[in-house]
Amino acid sequence: MNPLQIVQGTLFAAALLAATVSLPADSSLKTLHLVATHPLTISEPSDLAIDPSGHTLWTVTNKPARVFQLDLEGNVTKTLAYVGQDLEGIAYDPTSRTLWVAEERTREIVHLSLDGDVLGRTTLDLPGKANHGPEGIALDDRGRMFLVNEKDPGLFIELTRDHAISARRPLAFAGDYSGISYDRKKGCFWIVSDQSQALFLWSKSKGVIGQFPLGFPKAEGVAVDEATKTVYVVSDSENKLYVYRF
Questions:
Q1: CATH class for domain 43-245?
Q2: 182-234, pLDDT tens digit by residue?
Q3: CA nearest neighbour of 39 among 237, 222, 229, 218
């Protein structure tokens, strides 16, 4: 092997390592390990949420536009009454034991009971093409609500308690933004990208502090159980639930 080949090989290895994980030196999170993959009986799952017990997942689909309760192996345990139009995001609200879902094309956030009854809805003033709207929704430990806009533009959106948009922050670290989950222990957000086939750990103050390739298409939702250090990701096209530990 000539010197040029050695240098090229070294650079390739360095680039591969950088793509695998990029974290600050003081971070306790080094990598994600795939521990299980579960087939789903629902079609085209988009986004995920987990309740505080760590025993129940929630997801939404588009064909049909419904909300489902799942166990940790992806089995459907309940189908909610709500029928949506273009469901893309879901979050569990522990303060009221209710759900919030995002309707992409109508730019709405809809408040639901755990049976699927509509408790309220708000239309957001968001730009862009109809199918490039809100894709993920999350609540932090103070009950504040956040969304990611898929692309054109990619946005991190903060809402007031009255659900008016208080801040729009442009995002440019991935091809698109498909789902979001708040990590209470780290005070950061997990954001998954369908086009980049990657999962990112992102901070409002520091930007991207972790990047993990997923290696499968159409990653559309993420939920995190901080107590067990488990990350759940759903694939829209594969109809699968992937389970990671960090």
A1: mainly beta
A2: 999 889 999 999 999 999 999 999 999 999 999 899 999 999 999 999 999 99
A3: 237
